[in-house]
Amino acid sequence: MATNVKRLAYFEKWVDPVAEDILGRREDIELVRRHYADPDGDNAAVMARVHGYQIAPRTELREPWFGDADLLRRCPSLLAISSTGAGFDMVDVAACTAAGVIVCNQSGTNKEAVAEHALGLMLALAKNIGITDRALRRDRDLDRFLYTGRELRGRTVGIVGLGQIGTRTAELCRGLFGMTVLAFDPYLTAAEAAARGALQVSLDELLARADFVSVHCPRNDETFGMFGAAQFAGMRPTAYFVNTARGGIHDEPALEAALVAGRIAGAGIDVFLKEPPPPDHPLLRLANVIATPHIAGITEESLRNMSEAAAEQWIALFEGRVPPRLINPEAWPRYAERFEALIGFRPDAL
Fold this sequence. Notes:
Oligomer: single chain
CATH superfamily of the largest domain: NAD(P)-binding Rossmann-like Domain
Structural class: alpha/beta
Strand content: 5-15%
């Protein structure tokens, strides 16, 4: 039965309340707030009736509310799932496509925050900021020349994944420090990479030449475990590895082994396979590792940007327009049929 009211569910809270302000002004959208601690039966009954689901980030998300085939089976009215930021690895996109459910993200809305964080990790590693902070707190007679750092100017950075965040990182490295920017992105041509300020090379060449390797690709079947023992062995012993993308793209035991053996100089890690990592995680015991708790994309500005973008995208979607950050356009034909049956009018064509 078609309805004029579109029900949009989320758990706990938006990362910035501006989204609730924007959406709350719409008489045709009913915001449905749930809590993970609510009885499972109550949550299931409510979720079975919603048309949209603003899914929480992976770190905060709880079972059984991942965007998987089981959720789709339990939510027959669901038309769309939207992620908080650029990442959408908590959603089974293939299952959504098969079910006629579209998936959206907020790509680009936190690019400044993540790019700045990646650059901050590069600076902290090259200048030995983490190591010297600990030494200054520990050592009475500190020999500062033991901690001589390196400058970023004129170095080479290798960017893996030249999307919006990778492109902004390239811009900062090139513009601020005159760095040579290499990129590996199999979905771009050499001309497209050049237009984004980078020289497209193979992954092996990038690893062999880069002083800093910065990861900015999504986590999926292609990239899970992308950096293992062979890749770290292919890096220069003076090079640093930085990952602000997703845990699991690098093999954590392989990274630990490379750092302990001195095959690479250090690592800046914002993401872990299990988040938050346990305090006794092997990487957290290493002096040449700077770790942060998946906060690269979390700034006051980016949280507001992501929430505003998500709210506006939901409005576009529920008005029948094509959302600007659609992940699976191949789902659109079936989605359009389901939208018309549930909402009462046909959405725009792609």
